Amino acid sequence: MRYQCVIFDLDGTILDTLGDLKNAVNHALTKRGYAARSLEEVRAFVGNGVKNLIERAVPQGTAAEEIPEILADFKAYYNEHLNVATHPYAGIPELLRDLRAAGIKVGVNSNKYDAAVQLLMQAHFPGLYDKALGESAGIPRKPSPAGVENLLQSLRVGKEDAVYIGDSGVDIETARNAGLNMIWVSWGFRRPEEMQPVPERRADSVEDLRRALLG
């Protein structure tokens, strides 16, 4: 099927943001004398927003009242260093360019806060997308379908003509809640063996995804 609109997740789908997330987590942890986390540990913790990331990263038994302070330190550091190691996955800018050239609209729906989404999209994909949305007062976090619905309305596309691309179970839930077809990508933050149930449609490379979207 040739879609009129493709909606992408951001972290782990089109941008590899893991290095900067790890550095921000470890800044907040080591500031309090807690052990740093490895890249693989942070990969496993990512998902469902930064509050959940911090709750998973702190040592077991950390007092609940410490969490907001650690989260604030994480956010302050990340705000200043969110685009140091972050980079697009190989082949993604070219794919976005080809989708736009084919007249297919490109949207991005992220659980990252909206200001960071706008900064990263402009830094890495200028002119290669139609609209990007992150979490804000008016757009709750996924798996709420609100972001997808906002994008479809703004881009004037029906859900039957759109497809959602993401790397996590949250993305699968989001697509389901929004009534969209979905393609899971295996190069992101979730390994195939971690996906339960196993996604019906998957792409193991950007070239796989290109064939699914452009033929």
UniProtKB/TrEMBL annotation:
One of its GO terms (biological process) is DNA repair. GO terms for cellular component: cytosol. Keywords: Hydrolase. The keyword Hydrolase applies. InterPro entries: HAD-like_hydrolase_sf (IPR050155), HAD-like_sf (IPR036412), HAD-SF_hydro_IA (IPR006439), HAD_2 (IPR041492), HAD_sf (IPR023214), PGP-like_dom2 (IPR023198). GO terms for molecular function: phosphoglycolate phosphatase activity. SUPFAM superfamilies: HAD-like. PANTHER family: PHOSPHOGLYCOLATE PHOSPHATASE. This is HAD-IA family hydrolase. It comes from Candidatus Pullichristensenella excrementigallinarum. The lineage of its organism: Bacteria, Bacillati, Bacillota, Clostridia, Candidatus Pullichristensenella.
